[in-house]
């Protein structure tokens, strides 16, 4: 069962990618992006003309894009710009290096050299700006020095290839350039990781040391924004201690207004194993259980706690070590989640709570027994009739998964019959997308498949099978009729 993530919560599903995706991604108009990058591009072109000799930075010039002021008021806004600029510039360099690999394979030496010069310019520009912005850690300085030397070597060696037609020489140079280029790519990647870790440490320090709710909230927002850039960055964030810092916030009553925001960030970080390991080390599951069971907690906080539960119980994760501590709190968590499904004020809250339950029912049969005792079948089937709670195929996907897992228990059949669940499952067999979205179409297919599995399991009970046969005349879908005729022949 996958967990809600992606740019929209509703694009989540049980088999979708892990929760890193429910964040709002950085949406920038292409013209605006071009204008933001224009200063760097023109600077790079000038430096190319000057044979990659960087123009010195004035000592009193402290307004580079990568600069983070020490003043608290401006720091939050600048921090976001620092990180986004760093990522943007890193993407430019990575793109140039990728082009160089391609052109090297094709033997386009003029273009190889031109790309090497541009990459050299971009790297030098980035290094000089970052060094001007803040004191560079010693370990990062080593990478910077080595990287700049390799970039210059790359520029010089590609220039030599422009002045010869000796195929044997060019072949040997191609191998040498490929090796240097690989080293440059690796060194650049390591340097960027260190720079990002340095910026992330600044944000975490703000979360840990500040008492100002606005400063902490802004730092959390910046971390949340970073998590959308992929699992590699989430790993860096986790290793720097973000999960620990965020749970400290969630354990202090004075920061209750930040619980939802902090937990949303935790859920995103936990798309990687390192994030889950950090959560386990600080007894994060107990904190989640406390928030879920606390009646004074606002719905948003409980919903985000459910999102974290959904993330850490996702079958996409290979490690299950953290689930041992989860079992200790499972009864309280399951009880709270089904109550949240029942009282959810909107589809997103229901989706998060039901996704967490769906994942939990996969790894422990005791969870299914608890849910039956809590009238989960009635609650879920009633929710399917409420468009305010179950308004998309993604939510139905969660519901039918829970029902499929509950249906392995003998007592489930009678509850389904009592709530007219057979009719609902037959309707789900014909679930259709309301748009041309591929993800919605895939969600509908999963709903159909899981509804069929649920019906097949429940039809061990003759009453369920007979009810389905009696209802088959209302179905416009041919494959139902085939399936139901098969069940009818077995009963006879």
| Share in β-strands | under 5%
Helix content: over 70%
Which fold does the CATH topology of the largest domain refer to?
Answer: Leucine-rich Repeat Variant
What Rg do the Cα atoms give? 28 Å
Largest sheet: none
Shape: elongated
Distance from first to last alpha carbon = 37 Å
Low-confidence region ranges: 1-27, 42-76, 486-492
Domain Protein inscuteable homologue LGN-binding: 26-70
Domain Protein inscuteable homologue C-terminal: 89-473
Region (Disordered): 1-26
Pfam families: Insc_C (PF19427), INSC_LBD (PF16748)
Folded structure, characterized:
InterPro entries: ARM-like (IPR011989), ARM-type_fold (IPR016024), Insc_C (IPR045789), INSC_LBD (IPR031938), INSC_LBD_sf (IPR038205), Inscuteable (IPR039921). One of its GO terms (molecular function) is cytoskeletal anchor activity. This protein is an all-alpha fold. The chain has 3 domains: 77-193, Up-down Bundle (Four Helix Bundle (Hemerythrin (Met), subunit A)); 210-314, no CATH class; 341-491, Leucine-rich Repeat Variant, CATH 1.25.10. It has helices at 30-49, 72-106, 109-133, 138-160, 167-209, 213-227, 231-239, 242-250, 259-269, 273-281, 284-293, 299-312, 323-328, 330-343, 347-363, 365-373, 376-384, 393-406, 412-418, 421-428, 438-458, 462-471, 478-491. Helix 22 crosses helix 23 (478-491).
């Amino acid at each position: 069962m996958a967990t809600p993530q992606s740019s929209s919560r509703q694009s989540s599903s049980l088999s979708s990618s892990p929760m890193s995706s429910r964040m709002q991604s950085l949406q920038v108009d292409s013209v605006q992006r071009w204008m933001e990058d224009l200063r760097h591009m023109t600077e790079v072109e000038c430096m190319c003309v000057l044979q990659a000799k960087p123009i010195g930075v004035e000592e009193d010039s402290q307004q580079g894009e990568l600069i983070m002021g020490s003043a608290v008021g401006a720091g939050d806004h600048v921090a976001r710009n620092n990180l986004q600029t760093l990522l943007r510039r890193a993407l430019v360099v990575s793109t140039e290096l990728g082009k160089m690999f391609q052109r090297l394979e094709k033997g386009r030496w003029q273009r190889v050299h031109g790309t090497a010069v541009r990459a050299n310019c971009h790297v030098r520009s980035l290094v000089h700006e970052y060094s001007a912005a803040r004191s560079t850690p010693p370990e990062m300085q080593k990478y910077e020095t080595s990287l700049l030397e390799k970039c210059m070597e790359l520029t010089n060696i590609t220039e030599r290839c422009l002045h010869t037609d000796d195929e044997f020489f060019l072949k040997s140079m191609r191998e040498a350039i490929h090796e240097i280029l690989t080293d440059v790519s690796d060194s650049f990647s390591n340097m960027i990781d260190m720079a990002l870790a340095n910026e992330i440490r600044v944000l975490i320090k703000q979360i840990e040391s500040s008492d100002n709710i606005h400063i902490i909230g802004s730092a959390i927002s910046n971390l949340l924004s970073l998590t959308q850039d992929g699992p590699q960055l989430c790993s860096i964030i986790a290793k720097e201690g973000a999960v620990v810092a965020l749970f400290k916030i969630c354990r202090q009553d004075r920061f209750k207004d930040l619980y939802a925001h902090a937990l949303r960030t935790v859920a995103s970080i936990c798309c990687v194993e390192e994030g889950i390991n950090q959560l386990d080390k600080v007894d994060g599951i107990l904190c989640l259980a406390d928030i879920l069971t606390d009646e004074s907690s606002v719905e948003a906080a409980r919903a985000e706690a459910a999102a974290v539960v959904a993330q850490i119980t996702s079958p996409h994760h290979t490690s299950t070590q953290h689930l041992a501590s989860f079992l200790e709190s499972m009864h309280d968590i399951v009880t709270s989640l089904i109550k949240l499904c029942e009282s959810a004020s909107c589809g997103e809250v229901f989706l998060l709570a039901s996704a967490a339950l769906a994942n939990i029912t996969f790894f422990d049969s005791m969870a299914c027994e608890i849910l039956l005792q809590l009238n989960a079948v009635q609650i879920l089937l009633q929710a399917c009739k409420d468009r305010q709670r179950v308004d998309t195929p993604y939510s139905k996907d969660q519901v039918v998964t829970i029902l499929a897992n509950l249906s392995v228990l003998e007592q489930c059949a009678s509850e389904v019959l009592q709530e007219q669940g057979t009719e609902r499952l037959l309707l789900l067999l014909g679930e259709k997308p309301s748009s041309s979205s591929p993800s919605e179409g895939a969600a509908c297919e999963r709903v159909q498949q899981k509804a069929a599995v649920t019906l097949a399991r429940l039809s061990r009970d003759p009453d369920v099978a007979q009810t389905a046969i009696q209802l088959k005349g209302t179905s416009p879908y041919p494959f139902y009729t085939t399936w139901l005729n098969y069940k009818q022949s077995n009963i006879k």
